[in-house]
Amino acid sequence: MSQKVLSQIDADGNATVLLNRPDVHNAFDPEMVDALTATLRKLESTPRVRAIVLTGAGKNFCAGADIEHMKRSARFSREQNLENARATALMLHTLYTLEKPTVACVRGAARGGGVGLVAACDVAIAERGATFRLSEVKLGIIPAMISPYVIAAMGRRQAHRYMLSGEEFDSAEAFRTGLVHDICEEPELNALVGRMLAHLYSSGPGAVVAIKKLIPEVAGSRIDESLTELTAQRIAEIRTSAEAQEGLSAFLEKRKASWVTPASGKEKPKPGAGKAKGKS
Fold it and tell me: How far apart are CA 64 and CA 87, in angstroms?
């Protein structure tokens, strides 16, 4: 079993996934890529998991692809390089398409593919000292596999600048461009992530899945008859679900819905604190 990705699940079903190569700033090599993909799939298939927090061990979030491995890849065949690239693309797509909501908890540096991981999560929260850089161009390569997620997060215009310049930008700029949703001082980071998890905990699990499927269908689509019909069908389908009926009844009766347990008000374990115990 790989120790490069660790995970744990708390009493409320919040899973913390820890990138665990602090000696190389959590840069990912092929083994780590496969371990992260396998961990995410396992958590998605675990019914008690309600949300997933992705964070890094040590001072930094993720330095992207392992430079030493990329240097060795120059001696690989085209097919070997393609196989490696496909595995990384699958990892990013798995993260982006998970049915469970995902939260990036960012400390320190996020570089290259690390920025891609941030962009592929549903919600990104960073400490004020975090820095970001799409540094591939400085190495004479391109941010190909992360580009769909980064462009979707920060927009084409900002992607032009930061992908071409490879310059570093801070958490305030990441917030301004839409790459991250919230920033705070480092001591408050765990609490801010915890509050987001509390919001996600009170959301209907089935509705979360439906929304995550709806957004890619609607984003960038032309607002025409086919799109309005699609949205009408989606709400008509879910209104008759048991979860929707329970949620509406709970609201009218001024009580908590069945998926929110009374224990949800207790103090939650701090996410992203680097104490993950399980293995990928």
Answer: 14
HSE value, Cβ hemisphere, 13 Å, CA-based, for 92 = 26
pLDDT, tens digit (0-9, with 9 covering 90-100), for 118-153:
999 999 999 999 999 999 999 999 999 999 999 999
Give the tens place of pLDDT for each residue, 229-278: 999 999 999 999 999 999 999 999 999 999 997 444 544 444 554 445 44
Rg (CA), the chain: 19
Q: Give the end-to-end CA distance of the chain in Å, rounded to a whole number.
A: 7
Q: Any idea what the Cα angle at residue 27 is, between residues 11 and 116, rounded to 5°?
A: 75
pTM of the model as a whole:
0.89
Q: Do residues 8 and 273 make contact, with C-beta atoms less than 8 angstroms apart?
A: no
Query: Could you tell me the two tokens for 193?
Result: 């992530």
Q: What is the chain's percent helix, strand, coil content, to nearest 5?
A: 50, 15, 30
In angstroms, the CA 192 to CA 190 distance is 5
Lowest mean pLDDT among 83-87, 124-128, 187-191: 83-87
Q: What is the mean pLDDT of residues 179-189?
A: 97
Closest to 132 in 3D by CA, of 140, 141, 124, 122 = 124
User: In the numeric block, which tokens belong to residue 118?
Assistant: 């941030």
Return the closest-CA partner of residue 163 out of 188, 127, 198, 134. Answer: 134
